């Protein structure tokens, strides 16, 4: 039997690695789950690792909207009574993206050889994440696969909508800032030196604004390559620091507390947490498994740590609300509503209401921020360009006044 290299998570949230023998990946996954481990990666041999890496690079082009459409179509055909093998074949044939077509063909082959749909999907984590696979597993167990797939599509539509809005709110000021920097650099490097030669013939001391502009222009022209390499070094260093455990913690905490965008990121995290947990509970996923999935899909190590702490507390017999309150990450209203939902047996309903509320808050915050940033960025860009133009013409105006 082939030897598989695996990475798995313990019930306490600790990552472990090891090697074990098995007929296939599905067998190894079942063996690990029997040992109380949650597999996150199972590979065999160097050739298989290279193949998986190549496949992941090709699959990386798949968007969340593609998975939404796939889920809707999957649910419709299952509800219509089509056999699973036929559904997978139709989905693969009609898919316009080669990556999705290839993955669905592999899923179809695995199901045909005796694997469950869940086991077949687990082999493609870049397409079907932990949330998707866990929901499908719950749907298979309950005989409600069509309903679960509809819930997956609805959930992903909401997640994609929030991501687009936040991305739009962040992208606009970044793009305008880059344009402002490029225009300023062009004026300083190409235009100001022309005026500088003219101003050199003028007698007397230049105005302060002109001296500032000329000084900045000289600094940019004389140290352009050094500044460019310095900027690249800062970006690379930041990227490497964020990859470290401590650096990621600091960065993720800063994102939740930074001015202007911090409250938006926090609301997005809360909405994602409550929406994911509520959807999983509605699908019948065990609360401990649901919290495991929520933590792994949080995209923020601070939120992830708070969720894992909550999971450990529940294993010890405590409530959900207490560790969430102690984390000091979630707003008091969220904690109180979860506490009420837990005590009244309406946790799923309460989580859905919280998610709806915070998604509306994100919509309002993004709309307000966009409306505020647009004029501010225009004023900023106008000030920079206006300062340069005025500083160049000011000596000439004074010269004309002196001649008159």
Model description:
The protein has 404 residues and is mainly alpha-helical. It is built from 17 helices and three strands. The longest helix is centred in the last third of the chain and has 57 residues, at 347-403. Residues 45-53 and 55-60 have low confidence and may be disordered.
Name some characteristics of this structure:
single chain; 404 residues; mainly alpha; Receptor-associated Protein; 3 domains; three-stranded antiparallel β-sheet; elongated
Distance between the termini: 98 Å
- Mean pLDDT across every amino acid position: 81
Q: What is the tally of beta strands?
A: 3
SSE string: EEHEHHHHHHHHHHHHHHHH
- Radius of gyration, in Å, reads 28 Å
What is this structure, in a nutshell?
The protein is mainly α and 404 residues long.
What is the secondary structure topology, with strand pairs?
Elements (H helix, E strand, L loop, with lengths): L2 E7 L5 E7 L3 H10 L3 E6 L1 H15 L4 H16 L4 H11 L3 H15 L4 H6 L7 H13 L2 H56 L7 H15 L1 H20 L1 H13 L4 H21 L4 H10 L4 H15 L5 H7 L4 H13 L2 H57 L1
Antiparallel strand pairs: 1-2, 1-3
Helix pairs in contact: 3-4, 3-8, 4-5, 7-8, 8-9, 8-12, 8-17, 9-17, 11-12, 12-13, 12-17, 13-14, 14-15, 15-16, 16-17
């Amino acid at each position: 039997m082939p030897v598989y290299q695996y990475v798995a998570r313990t019930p306490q949230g600790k990552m472990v690695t090891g090697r074990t023998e098995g007929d296939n990946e599905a067998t190894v996954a079942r063996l690990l789950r029997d040992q109380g481990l949650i597999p996150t990666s199972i590979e065999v041999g160097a050739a298989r690792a290279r193949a998986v890496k190549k496949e992941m690079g090709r699959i990386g082009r798949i968007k969340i909207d593609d998975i939404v459409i796939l889920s809707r179509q999957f649910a419709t055909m299952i509800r219509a009574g089509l056999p699973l093998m036929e559904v997978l074949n139709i989905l693969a044939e009609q898919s316009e993206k080669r990556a999705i077509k290839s993955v669905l063909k592999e899923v179809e082959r695995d199901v045909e050889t005796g694997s469950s749909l869940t086991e077949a999907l687990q082999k493609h984590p870049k397409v079907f994440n932990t949330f998707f696979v866990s929901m499908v597993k719950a749907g298979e167990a309950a005989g409600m696969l069509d309903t679960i797939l509809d819930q997956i599509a609805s959930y992903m539509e909401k997640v994609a909508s929030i991501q687009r809005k936040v991305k739009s709110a962040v992208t606009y000021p970044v793009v305008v800032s880059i344009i402002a920097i490029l225009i300023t650099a062009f004026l300083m490097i190409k235009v100001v030196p022309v005026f500088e030669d003219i101003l050199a013939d003028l007698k007397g001391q230049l105005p302060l604004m002109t001296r500032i502009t000329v000084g900045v222009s000289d600094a940019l022209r004389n140290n352009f390559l050094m500044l460019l390499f310095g900027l690249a070094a800062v970006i690379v260093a930041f990227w490497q620091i964020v990859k470290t455990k401590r650096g990621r913690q600091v960065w993720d905490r800063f994102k939740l507390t930074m001015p202007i965008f911090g409250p938006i990121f926090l609301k997005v995290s809360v909405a994602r947490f409550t929406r994911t947990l509520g959807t999983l509970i509605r699908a019948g996923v065990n609360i401990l498994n649901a919290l495991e999935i929520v933590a792994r899909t949080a995209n923020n190590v601070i939120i992830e740590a708070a969720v894992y702490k909550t999971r450990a507390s529940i294993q010890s017999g405590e409530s959900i609300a207490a560790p969430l309150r102690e984390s000091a990450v979630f707003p008091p209203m969220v904690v109180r509503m979860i506490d009420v939902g837990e005590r009244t047996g309406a946790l799923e309903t309460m989580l859905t209401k919280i998610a709806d509320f915070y998604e509306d808050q994100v919509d309002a915050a993004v709309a307000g921020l966009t409306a505020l940033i647009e004029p501010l960025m225009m004023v900023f860009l106008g000030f920079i360009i206006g300062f340069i133009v005025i500083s160049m013409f000011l000596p000439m105006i004074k010269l004309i006044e002196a001649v008159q």
